[in-house]
Structure formats: C-alpha cells, structure tokens
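haha ok so turns out i had the wrong file open the whole time. this is the CORRECT one, sorry everyone. sequence first:
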Amino acid sequence: QVQLVESGGGLVQAGGSLRLSCAASGRIISSYAMGWFRQAPAKEREFVAAMSWTGANTYYRDSVKGRFTISRDNAKNTVYLQMNTLKPEDTAVYYCAARYSRDGGIYPISGSFDYWGQGTQVTVSS
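then structure:
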C-alpha cells in the first residue's frame, strides 16, 4: 500500500505561485508513475500533470502548460507540483496519485491510478 499526503495549498492572489508537495509512505515511489489532478466545486475531477517513473516523461493539460511543473525527489519519496502565474480558474482541490509502472508511461486518466491522497485546497483570488 502507498499512502499519499498532499500539502502546500492555500490562498494566493492571481499571478502568484504555490508549490504543492505529495509525500509518500508505505512504499518507495521511485517505480511509480505519478499524477496530479484537481476538482473544482460542482465539476468533475480533471487531469493536471503526470510523470513517468523515471521522471523522463511528463505531460500537462493545455491550460497549465508553461505555468505548472511536475517533479519528483525520490530520495525524499516526494512529488511536487510547482504552480506559477496562478489564475482564478486554477482554484480547486488538488490530488496526487500513484501507479506502479516501470514501462515509462504517463497516465492522464484518473482511473489509471491506484493510490490517491486526500487533497489540498488551492484558492486563487482575482
């Protein structure tokens, strides 16, 4: 089992930055593909960013390309989402997810992931 705990959310003004962290326990996640998803009120959960187990491959939803960066520090068993130039439409609960995968794949679909964190709230004011 993998336990994931997100942190780093908060209230920020439009144009500001936040760095979300996803700390894993129970397993070493160096062999896991990772993803970030978000869910705004009254909306379905949507894909934000994903990374292969090596970190060599990344993929982003179009609306966050050039603003968000997913990264991982396997020594700390942690994945990050750096979010810059935040916009009010980025407001949501952000979730990290993990999937055991050593095939180099990246997974932009929530159903592909086996483990989820509890989420962290990000609110961007205009």
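The chain has a mean pLDDT of 95.
again sry for the mixup
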